[in-house]
Amino acid sequence: MNRRTFAKVASLSALSATSVARTLGQAAKPLRLGVIGAGSRGQEVMRQFLHLPGVSVRAVCDIYPPRQREVDRLAGAPVPFMADHNALLGRDDLDAILIASPLACHAEHIFAAAKRGLPIYGEKAMGFQPAECQQIVDALVRSKTLYQVGHQYRYASWAQESFRRIQAGQIGRPTHIYAYWHRNGDWRRPVPANDPDGRLEHLINWRLYRESSGGLVTELGSHHLDMANWIFGEVPTSVLGTSSICRYHDGRTVGDNTLATFNYSAGRKLFFSSITDNAKNGNELWVYGEEGSVQITMEDATFYYEKKAGAPALAPSGSTVVQHGIVTGSSYSTQGEMPYRGEGERIGTQAYEDSTLTAVRSFVGAVHGEHPVEADVYVGYGSAIACAVAHDAVFSEEKAAIPALQRA
After folding, report:
1. pLDDT tens digit string along 30-54?
2. Assigned domain for 117 exists
3. How much is the pTM?
4. Are 238 and 400 in contact (CB under 8 A)?
């Protein structure tokens, strides 16, 4: 994050709810939120909800008691705290539910919230097991429950402008997407020393274990999958991948690196790479079309264009070229093969805003009937089903089919 972006984020965070409302032109409509899952991501989404005028957190459910103190500090006042999600859903002072529990619990919590009929903002991925994904869609459709999945980049201004330009044909027909989320860190969170049976280890570091986590493809790559589904206009039909534990031999059972290829119709593909021992590339997505490319990051997007018709062609096969004073065969020429290092067209967007804040504001508007949900249950299915199948495919290293949604 550069200094200018940091200043904008810091300034926004420092504003009071009233100032945010005035700055963003949003009327203060009340929304009483119940939260299931108050870990690191749950608290971050709560923080963004509390930036919005009229939003209050009325109750929180989490099975790890130390979260209560963290939630109270975040909310600035004591918040009713309980370990049973059914007790929270039984309250009569809630207008909507945030579900940010560990992935393996999503289905249980969505089913329970859908029975109550309260609007749900559910963290990704929507479901863990392939069968759960279909069952969740069925339950939400049957109960007519408003649901928004936490694919916040769908709401980012630079991503929406990129999608608009891609749909308008500015890079030609998109055929390949290369996505990266590279980090340099073990992805492990600290656990209290007094944990003889490992219960707290699996509770706090649930992302490191196959029985509770989809691994890097789900926990990180689900965002890229959603973007690819958005751009290609469909869900992938199959996946082939690989994963291993290369550096962090610490008892985890999901890989510390993964590489997966998702196949779409007409030969189009998404390639996803995630490693945890080198941060080069970071989090970015490249969309390649017949006439240009676009690089989408967590903060911006830049378009690049292929050479126009009439531009000098590469030397024909079998010919010779002079390069740096040396005569070589054309196959050794770097003309047209070196990475492009010039300036692209950076798309103009409004002042930077955290995409989660944009997403939760849109959810509040949808709850109030101002507009439909964009990242709805069907969007949620598209990424979740691909991740659920990839969970096993990257371990078996065998190509696996991704089932299509069965609509009632």
Report:
1. 999 999 999 999 999 999 999 999 9
2. yes
3. 0.87
4. yes
